[in-house]
Amino acid sequence: MKITFYGHASLGIEVGGKHIIVDPFITGNPQASAIDIHTLKADYILLTHAHGDHVLDVEAIAARTNAVIVSNAEITSHYAKLGFNAHPMNHGGTWKFDFGTVKYVNAIHSSSFPDGSYGGNPGGFVIEGEHKNIYIAGDTALTYDMKLIPLRTKLDLAILPIGSNFTMDVEDAIIASDFVECDKILGYHYDTFGYIEINHEESIRKFFDKGKDLMLLGIGESIEL
Q1: Is 21 exposed, middle or buried (0-12, 13-18, 19+ CB in 10 A)?
Q2: Where in 10-131 does DSSP place strands (E)?
Q3: What residues contact 213, with CB distance under 8 A and at least 6 apart?
Q4: What pLDDT score does 142 carry?
Q5: Which of 44, 49, 154, 211 is the most exposed place for a label (fewest CB within 10 A)?
Q6: What is the per-residue pLDDT for 215?
Q7: In 3D, which of 104, 179, 184 has the Cα closest to residue 144?
Q8: Is 192 left (phi over 0), alpha (psi -120 to 50) or beta?
Q9: Residue 103 has what pLDDT?
Protein backbone atom coordinates (compact mmCIF):
# COMPACT_ATOMS: atom_id res chain seq x y z
CA MET A 1 0.00 0.00 0.00
CA LYS A 2 1.41 3.36 -1.08
CA ILE A 3 0.10 6.63 0.37
CA THR A 4 0.88 10.01 -1.16
CA PHE A 5 0.19 13.36 0.51
CA TYR A 6 -1.30 16.01 -1.79
CA GLY A 7 -1.59 18.71 0.86
CA HIS A 8 -4.21 19.66 3.45
CA ALA A 9 -6.39 16.52 3.79
CA SER A 10 -5.86 15.21 0.27
CA LEU A 11 -4.32 11.77 -0.20
CA GLY A 12 -3.56 9.32 -2.95
CA ILE A 13 -3.65 5.62 -2.10
CA GLU A 14 -2.45 2.77 -4.29
CA VAL A 15 -3.68 -0.61 -3.09
CA GLY A 16 -4.61 -3.84 -4.82
CA GLY A 17 -3.73 -2.37 -8.20
CA LYS A 18 -6.28 0.43 -7.76
CA HIS A 19 -5.86 4.17 -7.29
CA ILE A 20 -7.85 6.05 -4.66
CA ILE A 21 -7.98 9.78 -4.02
CA VAL A 22 -9.24 11.05 -0.67
CA ASP A 23 -10.77 14.52 -0.21
CA PRO A 24 -9.24 16.26 -3.25
CA PHE A 25 -8.55 19.91 -2.44
CA ILE A 26 -5.54 20.64 -4.62
CA THR A 27 -6.12 23.42 -7.17
CA GLY A 28 -7.33 25.74 -4.41
CA ASN A 29 -4.28 25.14 -2.24
CA PRO A 30 -1.28 27.31 -3.26
CA GLN A 31 1.01 24.97 -1.34
CA ALA A 32 0.03 22.14 -3.72
CA SER A 33 0.68 24.07 -6.94
CA ALA A 34 3.18 21.43 -8.12
CA ILE A 35 0.44 18.76 -8.18
CA ASP A 36 -1.35 18.49 -11.53
CA ILE A 37 -4.80 17.01 -10.97
CA HIS A 38 -5.04 16.19 -14.69
CA THR A 39 -2.34 13.55 -14.27
CA LEU A 40 -3.73 11.89 -11.14
CA LYS A 41 -5.09 8.37 -11.53
CA ALA A 42 -8.35 7.59 -9.75
CA ASP A 43 -10.54 4.51 -9.70
CA TYR A 44 -12.26 5.74 -6.53
CA ILE A 45 -12.68 9.06 -4.75
CA LEU A 46 -13.37 8.81 -1.01
CA LEU A 47 -14.96 11.84 0.64
CA THR A 48 -15.15 12.28 4.40
CA HIS A 49 -17.53 15.24 4.21
CA ALA A 50 -18.74 18.01 1.89
CA HIS A 51 -16.73 21.08 2.86
CA GLY A 52 -15.06 22.90 0.00
CA ASP A 53 -11.57 22.18 1.29
CA HIS A 54 -12.32 18.48 0.78
CA VAL A 55 -14.40 18.34 -2.41
CA LEU A 56 -13.07 21.17 -4.59
CA ASP A 57 -11.55 18.96 -7.30
CA VAL A 58 -13.98 16.04 -7.17
CA GLU A 59 -15.86 16.88 -10.35
CA ALA A 60 -12.78 17.61 -12.45
CA ILE A 61 -11.10 14.35 -11.41
CA ALA A 62 -14.22 12.20 -11.64
CA ALA A 63 -15.19 13.57 -15.07
CA ARG A 64 -11.80 12.64 -16.49
CA THR A 65 -11.28 9.28 -14.74
CA ASN A 66 -14.85 8.03 -14.33
CA ALA A 67 -13.95 7.27 -10.71
CA VAL A 68 -16.56 5.97 -8.28
CA ILE A 69 -17.30 8.51 -5.55
CA VAL A 70 -17.64 6.86 -2.11
CA SER A 71 -19.16 8.78 0.78
CA ASN A 72 -22.32 9.20 2.81
CA ALA A 73 -25.74 8.98 1.20
CA GLU A 74 -26.24 12.73 0.89
CA ILE A 75 -22.90 13.42 -0.76
CA THR A 76 -23.14 10.52 -3.18
CA SER A 77 -26.72 11.50 -4.07
CA HIS A 78 -25.48 15.00 -4.86
CA TYR A 79 -22.86 13.70 -7.29
CA ALA A 80 -25.09 10.99 -8.75
CA LYS A 81 -27.59 13.68 -9.75
CA LEU A 82 -24.75 15.35 -11.66
CA GLY A 83 -24.16 12.13 -13.57
CA PHE A 84 -21.16 10.77 -11.68
CA ASN A 85 -20.68 7.19 -10.50
CA ALA A 86 -21.26 6.91 -6.77
CA HIS A 87 -21.38 4.33 -4.00
CA PRO A 88 -23.35 5.45 -0.91
CA MET A 89 -22.38 4.42 2.61
CA ASN A 90 -23.35 5.37 6.14
CA HIS A 91 -21.92 5.08 9.62
CA GLY A 92 -21.05 1.55 10.66
CA GLY A 93 -21.50 0.25 7.13
CA THR A 94 -18.87 -1.94 5.48
CA TRP A 95 -18.39 -2.80 1.81
CA LYS A 96 -15.90 -5.05 0.07
CA PHE A 97 -14.47 -3.23 -2.95
CA ASP A 98 -12.03 -4.71 -5.45
CA PHE A 99 -9.11 -3.09 -3.59
CA GLY A 100 -10.15 -4.09 -0.07
CA THR A 101 -12.80 -3.57 2.58
CA VAL A 102 -13.99 -0.11 3.60
CA LYS A 103 -15.89 0.83 6.74
CA TYR A 104 -17.43 4.28 7.15
CA VAL A 105 -16.95 5.38 10.76
CA ASN A 106 -18.03 8.29 12.89
CA ALA A 107 -16.44 11.74 12.91
CA ILE A 108 -17.48 14.77 14.96
CA HIS A 109 -17.51 17.80 12.68
CA SER A 110 -19.96 19.54 10.33
CA SER A 111 -20.69 18.93 6.66
CA SER A 112 -22.17 21.21 4.02
CA PHE A 113 -21.37 21.90 0.39
CA PRO A 114 -19.84 25.26 -0.57
CA ASP A 115 -23.30 26.51 -1.62
CA GLY A 116 -24.61 25.78 1.88
CA SER A 117 -26.62 22.69 0.95
CA TYR A 118 -26.67 19.76 3.34
CA GLY A 119 -23.74 17.37 3.13
CA GLY A 120 -24.94 14.68 5.52
CA ASN A 121 -23.01 13.58 8.58
CA PRO A 122 -19.21 13.62 8.40
CA GLY A 123 -17.23 10.42 8.71
CA GLY A 124 -13.91 8.67 8.38
CA PHE A 125 -12.78 5.47 6.71
CA VAL A 126 -11.14 2.28 7.88
CA ILE A 127 -9.55 0.53 4.90
CA GLU A 128 -8.41 -3.08 5.09
CA GLY A 129 -6.39 -4.09 2.07
CA GLU A 130 -3.27 -5.91 0.92
CA HIS A 131 -2.53 -7.11 4.46
CA LYS A 132 -2.27 -3.49 5.65
CA ASN A 133 -4.99 -1.57 7.46
CA ILE A 134 -5.35 2.19 7.76
CA TYR A 135 -7.71 4.65 9.45
CA ILE A 136 -8.45 7.97 7.77
CA ALA A 137 -10.10 10.05 10.47
CA GLY A 138 -11.34 12.93 8.34
CA ASP A 139 -12.04 16.22 10.06
CA THR A 140 -12.97 15.29 13.59
CA ALA A 141 -12.80 16.06 17.26
CA LEU A 142 -11.46 13.45 19.62
CA THR A 143 -14.24 10.95 20.23
CA TYR A 144 -14.64 7.79 22.29
CA ASP A 145 -16.04 6.10 19.18
CA MET A 146 -12.42 5.72 18.06
CA LYS A 147 -12.05 3.04 20.72
CA LEU A 148 -14.34 0.80 18.68
CA ILE A 149 -11.94 0.60 15.74
CA PRO A 150 -9.27 -1.70 17.26
CA LEU A 151 -11.98 -4.05 18.54
CA ARG A 152 -12.35 -5.12 14.92
CA THR A 153 -9.28 -3.94 12.99
CA LYS A 154 -5.59 -3.90 13.89
CA LEU A 155 -4.23 -0.75 12.27
CA ASP A 156 -0.87 -0.29 10.59
CA LEU A 157 -1.35 3.48 10.20
CA ALA A 158 -3.67 6.15 11.56
CA ILE A 159 -4.11 9.33 9.49
CA LEU A 160 -5.19 12.04 11.91
CA PRO A 161 -5.89 15.78 11.68
CA ILE A 162 -3.56 17.78 13.92
CA GLY A 163 -4.12 21.44 12.99
CA SER A 164 -6.54 22.31 15.81
CA ASN A 165 -9.19 25.10 15.59
CA PHE A 166 -11.43 23.08 13.22
CA THR A 167 -10.29 19.60 14.34
CA MET A 168 -8.20 17.83 16.96
CA ASP A 169 -4.90 19.36 17.96
CA VAL A 170 -1.67 17.44 18.50
CA GLU A 171 -2.46 16.59 22.12
CA ASP A 172 -5.88 15.18 21.25
CA ALA A 173 -4.40 13.31 18.27
CA ILE A 174 -1.99 11.59 20.65
CA ILE A 175 -4.95 10.44 22.73
CA ALA A 176 -6.73 9.38 19.53
CA SER A 177 -3.74 7.22 18.61
CA ASP A 178 -4.10 5.55 22.02
CA PHE A 179 -7.81 4.99 21.39
CA VAL A 180 -7.19 3.34 18.00
CA GLU A 181 -4.14 1.49 19.36
CA CYS A 182 -1.80 2.64 16.63
CA ASP A 183 1.55 4.33 17.26
CA LYS A 184 2.34 5.10 13.61
CA ILE A 185 0.59 8.32 12.62
CA LEU A 186 0.44 10.39 9.48
CA GLY A 187 -0.58 13.93 10.33
CA TYR A 188 -2.75 15.98 8.02
CA HIS A 189 -5.10 18.99 7.94
CA TYR A 190 -2.45 21.46 9.09
CA ASP A 191 -0.55 24.52 7.79
CA THR A 192 -2.88 25.20 4.83
CA PHE A 193 -3.97 28.54 6.28
CA GLY A 194 -3.37 30.58 9.40
CA TYR A 195 -5.94 28.95 11.65
CA ILE A 196 -4.24 25.57 11.46
CA GLU A 197 -0.51 26.30 11.38
CA ILE A 198 1.58 24.07 13.64
CA ASN A 199 5.13 23.82 14.95
CA HIS A 200 6.48 20.74 13.17
CA GLU A 201 9.41 19.95 15.46
CA GLU A 202 7.35 20.40 18.60
CA SER A 203 4.52 18.22 17.24
CA ILE A 204 6.88 15.41 16.27
CA ARG A 205 8.58 15.62 19.68
CA LYS A 206 5.28 15.40 21.56
CA PHE A 207 4.42 12.17 19.75
CA PHE A 208 7.96 10.85 20.21
CA ASP A 209 7.79 11.50 23.96
CA LYS A 210 4.78 9.18 24.07
CA GLY A 211 6.60 6.46 22.13
CA LYS A 212 4.85 7.29 18.87
CA ASP A 213 5.98 8.16 15.35
CA LEU A 214 4.37 11.23 13.75
CA MET A 215 5.10 11.60 10.04
CA LEU A 216 4.66 14.99 8.36
CA LEU A 217 5.12 14.43 4.65
CA GLY A 218 5.96 17.12 2.16
CA ILE A 219 3.34 17.67 -0.53
CA GLY A 220 3.88 15.01 -3.19
CA GLU A 221 5.84 12.75 -0.87
CA SER A 222 4.82 9.13 -0.29
CA ILE A 223 5.19 6.30 2.19
CA GLU A 224 4.76 2.59 1.64
CA LEU A 225 3.32 0.17 4.15
Answers
A1: buried
A2: 11-15, 18-22, 44-46, 68-72, 86-89, 94-97, 100-106, 123-129
A3: 183, 184, 185, 207
A4: 98
A5: 211
A6: 98
A7: 179
A8: alpha
A9: 98
What confidence tens digit (pLDDT) does each residue in 168-199 have?
999 999 999 999 999 999 999 999 999 999 99
H/E element, 178: helix 170-179
| Amino acid at site 116 | G
Measured CA to CA, the distance from residue 164 to residue 67 in angstroms comes to 31
Q: Which of 155, 40, 56, 139 is nearest to 103 (CA)?
A: 155
Q: Quickly count helices (H) and strands (E) in the chain.
A: 6, 14
Tell which phi-psi region holds residue 179, choosing left (phi > 0), alpha (psi between -120 and 50) or beta: alpha
Which of the residues in the chain have pLDDT under 70? Answer: none
pLDDT score at 130 = 80
Instruction: Report the C-alpha gap between 11 and 224 in whole angstroms.
Output: 13
Burial class (CB in 10 A: 0-12, 13-18, 19+), 100: buried
Say if CB 200 and CB 216 are below 8 A apart.
yes
**How far is it, in rounded angstroms, from Cα 80 to Cα 85?**
6
Terminal-to-terminal C-alpha distance of the chain: 5
- CA-to-CA distance for 150 and 179, rounded, in angstroms? 8
